[in-house]
Hints:
Layout: H1 2-15, H2 21-29, H3 46-68, H4 72-81, H5 86-97, H6 117-122, H7 131-148, H8 153-162, H9 164-170, H10 177-194
Helix pairs in contact: 4-7, 5-10, 7-8, 8-9, 8-10
Amino acid sequence: MQGMFDQELSRTIARSAPLGIAELLQQQLGTTPQPGEKGEGVPADFSAQIRRWRAAARLLTDQMRQKLAPFEGAIQKAARQFDLDPNLIRAVIFAESSGNPEARSPKGALGLMQLMPATARELGVNNPLDPEENILGGARYLRRLLNRFQGHLEKALAAYNAGPEAVDRHGQVPPYPETRQYVQRIQHYLRALKHP
């Protein structure tokens, strides 16, 4: 949830270029600290907003865990087999298919981890709509990408979404809005899963 706050604050700062950061924060918070005051001027509802953000993060985490519960055995197996954080696998599944093992994208990606048919074949996945096969194939692919990009998670996630060639071409997360949002969404899910 902190990321959402940071993004909104960044947008606000960018729109309000004439103001300095301190003045902008004062304006946004609706406070004007008095000379000599430290820690004063925080609006009364700021703590309430933080509590709402945390509650929303807990709700998201609960929804993810509930939706992915039927696949927990396969997630744990894949995490052990490919030395991955199970939360990373959960986050990718939730971002890719929202936990729907029958998911089919307009581009032809299939199953929980949205494997393209050619990628699935390359990974030894015979039935991409079989949850365990799909999770094992997707985890194998994530491990390959993490190895290829020397453990750089953002690059590996971008490659999962846009293809490794796109990341190679740009030397970083490609400047595609969809890919950047995808990487941010998975990082958001990871934070929610790690800090419920």
